Amino acid sequence: MPRPTRLFRKLLLVLSSCMISSIALTALYLWLIGVTPPPGDPVFKVGGMPVVPIFIAVLASLVFGAFLAWYLSRPLAHLRWGLQRMAEGQLGTRVEPLMNGRRDEITDLAHDIDGMAAQLQAMIAARDRLLHDISHELRSPLSRIQAAIGLLRQGSAPAEGMVDRVERETERLDALIDEMLTLHRLTAAAPIARSAVDVVEILHDIAADADFEARARNRAVRIETPERFVAQVDGDLVYRAFENVIRNAVKHTAEGSAVDVRARLAEGGQLEVVVSDRGPGVPPQMLEAIFEPFVRIDPRDTGRGSGLGLAIARSALQAHGGTIQALLGDEGGLQVRMRLQPGPPAAPVP
Ligand SMILES: Nc1ncnc2c1ncn2[C@@H]1O[C@H](COP(=O)(O)OP(=O)(O)O)[C@@H](O)[C@H]1O
Ligand SMILES: [Mg+2]
Fold first, then answer.
1. pLDDT tens for residues 264-308?
2. Residue 213 has pLDDT above 60, yes or no
3. CA of 198 to the centre of ligand 1 (A)
4. CATH class belonging to 195-340
5. What is 128-187's CATH number, 1.10.287.130, 2.60.120.260, 3.20.20.150, 1.20.5.170?
6. What end-to-end distance do the CA atoms of the chain give, in Å?
7. Pocket (CB within 6 angstroms of ligand 1)
8. Domain boundaries, the chain
9. Which ligand has its closest atom nearest to the C-alpha of 288?
10. Read out DSSP for 92-121?
11. Residue having the nearest C-alpha atom to atom 19 of ligand 1
């Protein structure tokens, strides 16, 4: 628990000196204007000085000075104690309850410190979870590679098939690591390399490729866009964001149905892109969660996609000052709404 601080001693000295000097100046004033003690008055006993009132005033000054110094310095000692514990890694420490119901700027500061600790705690928990998930995701292909090598050694499976398997798993690992690095680059808030890009052209390229692949599986991709939308963006990142969302829609849309990609100019000069499919959609409580790394509705998807597609899409759009949101479509299926602005976001006013 906190000990009295140097601040306490300083405040005590300053406050008591203020009060004592005001008493001394009043006594000096009385002496200068020549107030004489009434004969036989017990108050003015020693050499004409009002000893008892002066003694009481000095004592009161010391008591009030001490109280005021304690009142001001004690919460700061609590804050210091809390910050020290947080610095030692105990982020569950909270200092606001130690303010004993005071309502002033120091309590506001305690509230802000608690908020910061809670945020750091959540961030660290998310990192821990991510580390755990990454280890898990890397382990699956590695186990399959080990199994293939084992079978190869035993000679109990055709060598060519096993080599193909090892090759596929290695490619999957490579793609997963590439996506993890992209996500890391985006969440590390590194500046993005912007250049003038026609986003509508990117959308048409992705839709054409996706449609080509979808047709082989009796599905289609339809696209409707304005003529052009030239924006200052990192073309590669924007491509990845839209491609992930459109490929997800093609993957999940029902057989014989089409995915719609509709882009329009929205308020604020933004481009709104809505991708709708006719698939099973996701449970409403998962509409936000699917943007978290490695969250999949169907565990059977593990090993097929990296599980990072939507996390990358969200980070990529947010890095451009844009937004992404998943909704349940009117005709069933999932609807992903994205917004992108034509240039860098305006710098926040400090
Ligand atoms: N259009 C969609 N319809 C239904 N579920 C979807 C759709 N898009 C994404 N999801 C769900 O969100 C999860 C996360 O998507 P994503 O981050 O792209 O990872 P994945 O690599 O599995 O595609 C998917 O595993 C899937 O369960
Ligand atoms: Mg995906």
1. 999 989 999 999 999 999 999 999 999 999 998 887 776 677 889
2. yes
3. 27
4. alpha beta
5. 1.10.287.130
6. 37
7. 244, 248-249, 252, 277, 279-282, 290, 295-298, 301, 305-311, 334
8. 6-90, 128-187, 195-340
9. 1
10. T---GGGGTT--SHHHHHHHHHHHHHHHHH
11. 307
